[in-house]
Hints:
Number of strands of chain B: 7
Number of strands of chain A: 8
Largest interface: A-B, 49 and 48 residues
Number of domains of chain B: 1
Distance between the termini of chain B: 40 Å
Shape of chain B: elongated
Helix content of chain A: 10-25%
Number of helices of chain A: 2
Strand content of chain A: 35-45%
Shape of chain A: elongated
Structural class of chain B: alpha+beta
Number of helices of chain B: 4
Order of helices and strands of chain B: HEHHEEEHEEE
Radius of gyration of chain A: 25 Å
Radius of gyration of chain B: 23 Å
Order of helices and strands of chain A: HEHEEEEEEE
Oligomer: heterodimer
Structural class of chain A: mainly beta
Distance between the termini of chain A: 58 Å
Number of domains of chain A: 1
Largest sheet of chain B: 5 strands, antiparallel
Amino acid sequence: xxxxSQCNKLVVLAVIMLIPGCIWGSVQxxxxxxxxxxxxxxxxxxxxxxxxxxxxxxxxxxxKEGTIWLPSLDPSHGKMREVDSKVFFKxxxxxxDLSEHHVVYYYFDEWEKVNGFSIPIGNTLLSLxxxxxxLQFSELWVLVNRKTGxxxxxxxxxxxxx
Amino acid sequence: xxxxxxxILLALSLCLLPGCLTLFKYSGTEIKAARVAQIQPGKTLxxxxxxxxxxxxxxxxxGELVVIPKASIPDNEYRVPRRPTVVxxxxxxxxxxxxxxxxxxxRVYYFYYSESRDLTYYFLVVQYDxxxxxxxxxxxxxxxxxxxxxxxxxxxxIRPLHRLG
Lengths: 162, 165
């Protein structure tokens, strides 16, 4: 009788401990772009030096011709892929008469958004299958004329949530 | 009510108290702005810089692919596994291109220091977890033939790490 009572307690406690909890949050890695507005870049007024001072060296420095080796956007794979550098000029091809002096500085910020359910086991959390980790990107392309040193154009694509 | 039920409810209520946990992780050697200000382009020696800032994360010549290890951040089991970042060293040399004419002896020494904070807040069965990371980065242009630091570029991340709320 007493043994049954002990078992009941343990079962109730175990069930309570396994109540799934809700988890959400974010993981922010390197922030080249920061949270300040990008719109104070002024084509024809902002210089290449201004961009470098503000954001540091770009993730990619694309020349008009050639190919660039890039890591996969999915950081869990880590494979390199060869990309035509024209890809980085895609937003500027229609709007500018590009010369060999034009380069594109490409920056991005990435972070993870976590939503889901978990069960606390010991001091760790066991994620349930409904838990998702999404990678989010904000990206900035800056068209620079190296002969003049001016920024001639830029495109900023901000992720839905920052 | 049976006494054991009361005990369990009491234990449960203690478990459900809101709580907060903060973890820090660091990578690299701290880069002090005052020390960086002591660098004199064309005069400071490479060996002095190494003494001040420790071993660099990478040393690269022009046109090389540079593998940069990921900064250490607090672990949890739902995080996407991280691979090192790869960049072309020309992006580093570009920092100095308006000042210096490069030779085969030029190398860029890249240093970074990162501070990562994991702030977790527990309430009932809800957990909010936020990890933020800040970086200080330093690039030195070194002429290996002379052992002199010819230029430098410092990017200090002065913003505070996230605070809850």
